## 1
Amino acid sequence: MTPLSPKPEFILASSSPRRRELFGTLGIPYTILKPDIDESQHEGEVPLDYVERLSREKAMEVLQHLSKPSAVLAADTVVILSADTMGINEQGVILGKPVDAVDARQMLQQLRGRVHQVCTAMTLIILAEGDVQSSTTQITRTDVTMRDYSDDEIEAYIATGDPFDKAGSYAIQHPVFKPVARIDGCYTNVIGLPMCRLQTMLAAIGWARIEAKPVCDCNERYKGLFG
């Protein structure tokens, strides 16, 4: 596809340091605008509908503050735990960011030794001449199997303070706790920004020097990024 002309300013609608670090590997200059929306889950709203809606609402809220040609990327990530201990279920319960140590402890105990699903919705909107030229939202899903970590390990991890800004109360990339035994799917999706899917979305709109990634290679490319 022909590269976008004129190239719009790139706006990352997120304050997540992990998303910033991942996005920075693309070499695209960007500005951060944090969206201000109500992130409450609607009554009866299933997790996939919820995460998709939030990513769109984040992008649209930021768009209201822009006038010049811009590309807006917003993302939202959820951890979904099924009531069925034998597997995953997209109708399951969303585990958000813990409110305190008690909440973090409960989540980590719930996840221990089980499979859950991490879902990230990304919305990419192109604004040109005051109008939306294109808008797309895509969801990436990764199955995550947690290891059978001990209660003492949970307490030590909580003491680091790391769980408190993480959905599900954990970071896959934590160098000491290392809570994950196995993943089936995209590694950077679990961090919060599936880079293979993002590159494919950018290539589809003709962003210069970005190549599509029809097959995920994030596990090999990014595992060393966070130490």
## 2
Amino acid sequence: MSADIQDLVDRLAARLGRAVLVDDRDLRLVAASRDFGDADPARVWSLLHRRTRPEDVRHDELTRMRGPGYVPENPALELWQRLCVPVRCQGLLLGFVWVTDRHGEMAAEQVADVTATAAEVGAALHDRLLAGERDRALHRELVEALLSRDAATRSEAWEEAVDRDLLDEGGQLAVLFVRRAAASPEGGQPPKPGGPFLPDIARLARDRASLRALTAAWPRRAVAVIGGRRGEDLDEAVRALAGAIGAAGPWRVAVGGPVPGPAGLPAARRQADIALSTLRAAGVACWAGLSADALLAQFPRQLWADALLPAGIARLLADPSAPVLLPTLSAFLDCAGEAQRTAAQLRVHRTTLYYRLSRIEQVSGLSLRDGRDRLLAHLALRLHQLHGAPAVPTDVEEAAENPQRDAG
């Protein structure tokens, strides 16, 4: 289907002697002709990034166009004037045909030629849209069945995925979740609607020769079953894939597995769900790298919110200096109490570190030389980082006179 559209674009460009480009309705590149010495920097950017910047062409206005029109030259954006013809089929806006015409020299019959070609492109895009919808629906059904707890359902889906050459038989499997990270209001303003497009997980997987991806995608989230080649370790490759997806935009990306075969996919799905719960903002979390958080993340949020905290921990969490003391304590405990390594990680002098640790003991009543107190502090800090601040009581006791033993 794309080859048909490319042929239409190339033939139109040859007739006009001008560069032609086709985007879909979201301004993602569908096809582009060769240049005829008329490539402005904005077009070069579009070809490199495989999309047109909405701010370059006033996308909102374009969606309301009913026929050919011009986008004026914009020197600030290094954009030359170009003809835009909306691509429609059966009343649906499916894309745009762009023709560079810096000086407005195109004749009426040439504009008519572009309009006729846009109609042919529209029919091809409509066919592709229907085929894509069928494929997406099938992929969603297969992914849901592969992650089912019912063995018969899972086995049947696995056979179909392999028969359709969507996954390879043998090798390890992993489950990957992608969710759009919640936008934080800036300056008291509500988050802007929309956002970056969901990464093409299947394409990113194909860029890594050892991976195959079967993806169920929605506008704001995706679930993928990732397969590796027989005899190859999937863990490192799927971590790299997750990192590439995380770098594509404000996404929360989580990986469950690897598991040895389709029987392990329900467990990998739960692992990915737990890993995802550890991300409160954009980032990547892999079950295999969670360590203690793999258990702590399963601690119900509501139980933590209602937890009766030992008074020492409650005082520490509520202390005005908590934004400094808590990261210091977390780094100290993560470094197994090694002062030199902790100071280097925090980039502070050891004298500063010792002062902060002393202050932590004074506020909390904990002894950082006591294994039980260190365990209590570490657990509380990790749960705080995973689930947010609990309902710390406001009537906690004043700091104990004996800072060594008043953890409770």
## 3
Amino acid sequence: MLADCYYCSYWLLVALITKGVDGVFQRHTLRKSDFRRGIRLGARDHIIIWKKPIQRPKWMSKATYKKIPAEIKLREVKVKGKILITTFLNPKEVSKKAIGDLYLKRWLIEVDFRAIKTVMQMDILRCKSPEMVEKEIAVHLLGYNLIRTVMAETAAQWKIFPRDVSFKTTIQLLNAFRGRGLLNSEIKIREILEELFRAIARNRVNDRPGRVEPRVVKRRKSKYSLMMKPRQILKEKLVKMASSCSLN
């Protein structure tokens, strides 16, 4: 599991260790680091012990709190300007550089969010009620998972990594091929799918290590005010203003 500093908590790390899952997190800013302490593994690389917090979270039951171990052993490294906390304790199996390279892949989470919000146009939700907003988000996520499934099947057939397949190109090809499978037999549809997978596999994503993006909004703001009242009320207001102007 890869996540930023907001997920670097004692409770989540214990849950991962219990389930046999390894994780790499950026250290939370409220925690302080002292590389003079612990078991030294190398430069800015050591084994540390975290104690269980005395205060039990409100969402956790007393029974669950008692079962959680009193301390856990973790590894803390400073690499590429970031202090990372990980469950990979053996430096011979996972080097400090490998931990830093692994954490860089966390950026793929942001890329996936961009694919959902920008490519699939979920950055603006159009429903009004909370129930319909939930359904709108659910439909977007359903479509996203189906597209990723096609990408995974393509990668499996052509022996490539799923991340090498272009998400946007996959959508464009699905739209281009969807009309061809409506009036064909099952055998013909299989041939069309093979052709689709072949086309998707040909469009690879270039490897761009160390890529960064500015956190700015690209869409220009409109000069008009936001619609804060029902459209009909605003229309009636415009009609009244027009009629008063004509009388004057």
